[in-house]
Specification:
Length: 352
């Protein structure tokens, strides 16, 4: 089923998603592939009642383990596939768990590239039990090609040295920090996890490539001159597989500011060990070079570091040393504090 009404209203209209959720982790073994479940746990905990894992799973989000039957008794209304694997596939060995969820009164919500509605067994089970199959990675119809027209309002886009290292968390944290500073600011979700958190948005990586930059324009339309859209980035301009969606977001969103996201210690692209990670400086240079095509005034406001693998003292020392080295504000969006507010103020200072 489509989650959008019309292309004129879908950006702002909340999606009709049954809540609360049971988070399905499948049998993933790396946290980066459980980012949907982790994102919902961190940013919408009131909507999550538990987690459901298969044998062999090496990742937990720390919620109570529940079967679909137990989750339904606890008030859950839907099972959310909390996995974002390579290719967005739903493997056959997940099917018993998904069918069981439908049989026990839960709707299914997925952000995978493989559509729930395209799987015959799920369609039949959902029909039999009167349940819904909801695919959030489905863009609205009739998206326009990009116009390149400069829009009113201000925009900041999170970009990265790689995938799955903090662009979504950074955008959510910056939007909140800007509002705390008294700025009218909105988070604009461009991926399935952000859409589930915000309840609205557009899945950029599901848009036909000719219309991807136009989709980014549609995602952040004309606004009051003082309004800021904080746009969730996708992929990396240096990624061998996902650079296309990153460039479309960069051109279509026409950001006044970018914030570069990076995970210290990561050496190679996630899932692509033959490709080294670009440096922060290379990432700034490349994004500004290509971003000037649609906004000549684009600037880098600062750096967001994912220091989750470091102790508080190590993280604080690295944030300070990187800020001094780069001459830019640096913060960890989850650790927050004065460094995050300094980064948010730097976004405002990039306005021409």
């Amino acid at each position: 089923m489509s989650i959008y009404a019309t292309t004129d209203t879908a950006t702002f209209a909340p999606l009709d998603l049954p809540q609360p959720y049971l988070l399905f982790l499948g049998d993933v073994t790396h946290p980066a592939y459980a980012k949907t479940a982790l994102g919902l746990r961190d940013w919408a905990p009131e909507r999550c009642v538990g987690e459901h894992r298969l044998d062999g799973a090496g990742v937990s989000v720390g919620l109570p383990a529940m079967t679909p039957s137990q989750a339904r008794a606890a008030g859950a209304r839907a099972l959310v596939i909390g996995v974002a694997n390579v290719g967005g596939v739903i493997p056959d060995h997940w099917m018993p768990a998904l069918l069981d969820a439908l049989a026990n009164g839960l709707d299914l919500i997925s952000g995978m590239h493989m559509r729930l509605a395209d799987i015959a067994a799920l369609r039949e089970q959902a029909r039999h039990h009167g349940r819904r199959l909801i695919d959030v990675r489905e863009p609205p119809s009739s998206l326009p090609a990009a116009s390149g027209r400069k829009r009113s309002g201000k925009r900041v886009l999170t970009v990265g040295t790689d995938c799955a290292l903090g662009k979504k968390y950074t955008a959510l944290s910056l939007a909140r920090a800007l509002r705390e500073l008294g700025v009218d600011a909105d988070f604009r979700a461009s991926g399935q996890t952000g859409i589930l958190i915000a309840g609205r948005g557009l899945p950029m990586d599901a848009v036909v490539s000719d219309f991807a930059a136009g989709a980014a324009e549609w995602l952040s339309p004309d606004a009051d001159p003082a309004h800021w859209d904080v746009i969730e980035g996708q992929g990396s301009l240096s990624h061998p597989a996902y650079a296309g969606v990153s460039l479309a977001l960069l051109h279509g969103s026409q950001p006044d500011a970018i914030v570069v996201c990076h995970e210290p210690g990561r050496r190679n692209m996630l899932g692509y060990p033959g490709y080294r990670l670009p440096s922060i400086e290379e990432t700034i240079e490349l994004n500004l070079l290509l971003g000037r095509r649609t906004n000549p005034a684009i600037r880098c406001a600062g750096i967001s570091l994912n220091t989750s693998q470091l102790s508080p003292n190590e993280a604080q020392a690295l944030i300070a040393s990187e800020s001094a080295r780069l001459g830019l504000p640096v913060a960890d969006p989850i650790r927050g504090g004065a460094a995050l507010h300094a980064l948010a103020r730097a976004c405002l200072d990039t306005a021409p």
